[in-house]
Every structure is written in C-alpha cells, then in structure tokens.
Fold this protein.
Amino acid sequence: MAETASKRLKTNPVTIGTHNGHFHADEALAVYMLRLLPTYQSSTLIRTRDAALLETCHTVVDVGGEYDASKERYDHHQRTFNTTFPNRPTKLSSAGLVYMHFGKAIIAQHLGVSEEAVEVDVLWKKIYEHFIEALDAHDNGISAYDPKAIAAAGLEKRFADGGFGLGAMVSRLNPNWNEPTPADPREAQAREDERFLIASQRMGEEFSRDLAYHAEAWLPARAIVHRAYEQRLQYDPKGRILIFDGQSVPWKDHLYTLETQEGGESKVVYVLYPEKPVPDAKWRIQAVPVSSDSFESRKPLPEAWRGFRDEKLDEISGIVGGVFVHAAGFIGGNKSFEGARAMAVKALEM
C-alpha cells in the first residue's frame, strides 16, 4: 500500500499538477501533504486543465481522469473510481488518495522511525478516520448520516452549519463571482494561484496540528489508559469507575477501543482524575459520553447535585469537599480523591 520514502526519491525539483479554477479543500491538502516529503519540498506547482501540461508533471492530483500510483496520478473523478481507505466505506478524494499512499511516509518522518513501525500504522489509520475521511466525504458529497433515514425520522436541523468547517473555509478563499478579474490571463491565474496557496497552507496547518496531537499526545496516552482500565475493578466490582492517578490524558478513544475489544455489557460510567499533577490537587469526576463526539452521557451525575457548589453541594450530596457539579451533569469536582470517588460510588447507586 504505502511505499517507502526511499522508493519515491527522484531528481528534484519535481512538478505537481492540479486543476485551476475553483479550488477545494481536498487538492489544497493533497498538495500540502506531498510538500512535507523530501521529494516534493522544492516542487513547483502547475494549476491547469491542459492535458499536455499535466503530462509534463511528475505528480498530478485531482485532475486528469486517472488514478495510477505507479505513474503518480491521483484523480478520483472517473465514473469507475470507487477506491476507499482500507476497511473504511468512504470513497476517496485526492486528499485521501495522497494520504493513503504517502501518509505512512509523512508519519514516519514526523516520528523519526521507519514506515514499518507499529505506531506508524496505528496513527495512519487513526488520522484517516479522525481527519481525512470527513474531507473525502465532503468532497464526494457524502453525508455523515443516511439522508433517507433522517427524512423518514422527520429530523430537521436546528441551525445552519454549512459555513462552519474546513471545506467552507477553503471555499471562502475563492474569488467571489463579482470580483474584478485582471484582463491579462497570466496575471489572473497568478492571483488565483496565490489564493490556492493560502488555502493549501491553512489546510496543511490543521493537518499538521492533528498529526502532532495524535503523535505526541494521543499515542503516548494509550499505555496510561490501558493501565487504568486494567485496574478499574479495584474501585468498582463491575469496572464502572476508571481512575487516572497522577495526571489525566486523552482517554475517550482509547477507552471505547478497549471496551469494544473486550465486549460485554459492563461499561465505564465515570472517569476520575486530578486537575493538576500535584499531591494536593483537586479531583474531577467526568461522566463518559455515549460516544466520542456526543454531548449525551452514559449516566450523568445526579440531577439533584447539578448546578450546586461548595458547602451547598456537600449538604445535598452528603459528601464532604464538593467543589461543583455542572448544570448539565457531565462533570463535577471535589477537593480530594476520596471525595471524588465517593461521588462516583454514590452516583452509580442513584
């Protein structure tokens, strides 16, 4: 699937080709990702639909009507195109194609390891699902939900969200229909290309932040979450309380993965962690969401506690050291670990 970086080294500089005219998030990111690698760091960019010019390019993305990795051609607009990322259902855009073939090299370069390293494969899959796949769906007009199922259920949006997202950000960088266009075609293309490069840089910054987060925070957290998960029966016979002793880490994705792998009906309900990695830190109790992107908790903190603080919370809950419970019941706090644990145990019984 992903080739090693050494196989991609060719004589520099190389030329990347993509289409001109209205640009989108997928080719903007595809160009940025390529330029992260040594082969493309000093590459030039040609934006055109001229087949003869595209033929001269080392690599072509999002135009040309051809997908052939052996020829460095990565278009997805062919009627016969139906390629997806391994074990994912969403048809790829040019960004997904470039990521599928070059993502491991980009991640390995970031980590300073070989492309065959286990952690590279873990991040390659995770970043696709977390970042790239939504972009592929957006470019291919694929809804996150089945439109027919939504219509059948009679669901309607509460507010418009079409202008909120990376795709909308890139779209706004395109010239407006009534903006003056230079009479000189070369000047007009140069101006359009400048806007495309801004879009490519902005998309790339978000991708690089996502890569850095998953490589430097999400991945190291795995071992800590695994250890806490293995110890959860010490605090509740059904394993419904998960405790991080020392410091909280990004835990949701790892927890859901562990629960899926283990199976069974018993799930973690509350997660406890200190606010700071110091001995006298206050503790938080957080209700586990039903899914990683949901605002609904598996079991919110008791309604009677919600919205109260300090002594009033102590009085209502019967637990000393209360700091607060959020009005929505998804999080609360106590001055000590013992108090936070007592809140979790009592909340499970209510």
